[in-house]
Design goal:
Strand order of the largest sheet: 1-9-8-7
Number of helices: 6
Structural class: alpha/beta
Number of domains: 2
Order of helices and strands: EEHEEHEHEEEEEEHEHEHEEEE
Radius of gyration: 22 Å
CATH architecture of the largest domain: 3-Layer(bba) Sandwich
Shape: elongated
CATH superfamily of the largest domain: FAD/NAD(P)-binding domain
CATH topology of the largest domain: FAD/NAD(P)-binding domain
CATH class of the largest domain: Alpha Beta
Distance between the termini: 55 Å
Number of strands: 17
Strand content: 25-35%
Length: 249
């Protein structure tokens, strides 16, 4: 077992975790440990190949991988102890001490510190959590899964794509798969207005002739081994589906 005594432990090696560790080091903490389960730093950034990062920090319009590289270079130039391929399995807290236990291919790691920063990122909501009924065949992806397939592994998630949700992530994903040659049959949005920035509506949908279906929801996913079709329906002012408005895509 590797034992580490530190002033601060940071869980998560994405942009938030790296920024926290770097800033703690700059403010004078000399025993800072950052733990991440992945083999490389960056978190979600390496699969975000679009620009829009680093404008406020570096004064440049960087892609996700470029931003990740900048932060990784900076943290590795400090004395922060970066521990990769380590998954945190236990956490204990008392008034004056935090203890984190992680496992890695190299064995068990036990880190003790006065303070802890939890920057492990978010978890995407699944189709079940957003109330879409039907079977669960192959071809149903969260935005992060589809993004990782394309940007990290070079695999297209499908040739005909339906996007659920018109937030900025959904809009950018619609453009992303369209640029790779997929036909985006539409973007479904519950509300009477898009959830993302107007510029993204224009650049990601209108410029690619992608339909935006406002006041619509997906009420059913159909398919055996793989997605074959989806049923969408209009919703009223009360956000309940309107009987008879269903159509198959």
């Amino acid at each position: 077992m590797r034992r580490i005594d530190a002033e601060l432990v940071v869980i998560g090696g994405g942009p938030a975790g790296m920024a926290a560790a770097i800033r703690a080091w700059e403010l004078g903490l000399k025993k800072v440990v950052l733990i991440d389960k992945e083999p490389t730093l960056g978190g979600i950034l390496p699969q975000c190949i679009h620009p829009g990062f680093g404008i406020h920090v570096y004064g440049e319009d960087l892609t996700g991988p470029e931003m990740s590289e900048r932060l990784a270079e900076r943290i590795l130039s400090t004395g922060v102890d970066v521990v990769l391929e380590a998954s945190v399995i236990q956490f204990e807290s008392s008034y004056d001490e935090k203890t984190v236990v992680a496992v890695s291919p190299r064995g068990v790691i036990k880190a003790r510190a006065k303070a802890l920063v939890y920057a492990a990122g978010a978890r995407e909501r699944t189709a079940f959590e957003i109330g879409i009924v039907g079977s669960r065949p192959a071809g149903v992806y969260t935005a992060g899964e589809a993004q990782a397939l394309m940007d990290l592994y070079g695999v297209m998630p499908g040739k005909r794509v339906l996007i659920v949700g018109s937030g900025d992530v959904g809009l950018i994903m619609a453009r992303r798969v369209a640029l790779e040659g997929a036909r985006v049959v539409g973007v479904v949005e519950l509300m009477p207005y898009p959830g993302g920035l107007e510029r993204n509506v224009v650049q990601c949908l209108e410029d690619f002739n992608i339909p935006l279906m406002l006041r619509h929801v997906v009420v059913e996913v159909r398919g055996s081994r793989r997605v074959e079709e989806a049923v969408v329906a209009r919703v009223g002012e009360d956000l309940n589906t309107i009987p008879g408005s269903e159509r198959v895509i």
